[in-house]
Amino acid sequence: MAQAQTLVNELKKALRESGITYADVAVHLQLSEASVKRLFSRQTFSLERMERTLELLRMDFHDLVERVNSRREYVSQLTPEQEEALVGDTVLLVITFLVLNRWRYDEIRTVYDFEENLIQQKLIRLDRLRMIELLPFNRYRLLTARNFTWRRNGPVQNFFATRVQTEFFDSAFDQPEDELRFVGGMLSEGSITRMHEAIDRLSQYFDELVEKDSRLPMKQRIGCSGVFAIRPLQFSMFSQYQTGGDPQGE
Q: CA 221 to CA 105: how far, in whole Å?
C-alpha cells in the first residue's frame, strides 16, 4: 500500500509540474473529473489507467519509478552477507548488475536465456537482501547506489581481482569504443588528493550518463566498464636497480 501511495503521489507531482489538471486527465481517461479525484485520493489506480495517465506526460511506468528513486538516498556499501550472496550465485550477480544498470524485466527476458520464474526468484532474493524493493508487475526501486563501494578485501573486491580484472585487461584496446591510457609522474600529496577528487567526479559523470542513457532503447546502448585508479607505484624494473637513496638524488 505504501508503494502504491508513493507512486500515485509522484504521479500527482509530475502532473502539477507539467501543468496538467485533473480535468485534462478526466478527458484522456474518459471519466468525470470527480472520478479522477477519487482515483488520486484513494490510490485506486489500475495499471492501465496509470499508464494512460502517464501518456499525457510522455512517460512510462519506468520513468515514474525513476522519479521516485531519484529522491532517495542509497546505501553506498554492501554488508558482508550481501557481498557473499552475490559472489556465491553467478545468476544473481548477473541480474544484480543488470538491475543496477536500470534494465527492465522485459529487457532481461529478451536478451538473456533465463526462465521467467528464475528471474523472479532472483529479484525476490535481491528484495530479501534489501538491495531492491520489489514493486508490482516485476518493477523495482533500488536501495543501493548503482556503483556501491566494495568492502576492502571483501568478497566482491576479491572476485573482481581474480575474475574481472584479468578479463578486463586481456584486450588490445584497439576498437573505436576502447580507450586505454597510462600516465606516470611524480606528484605531491596535495596533487594526489586532487587526482582522487577528479576520479570521483569522473565516476559520478559516468553514473550520470548511465542514468541518462537508461531511457534509450536497448539496441542503442553498449555495455561498458571503466577502471579509474591512481596509486604510488615504483615499478620493479626501476626498484631492482636502486640503492635505497633518495630518488631525487638529494
A: 16
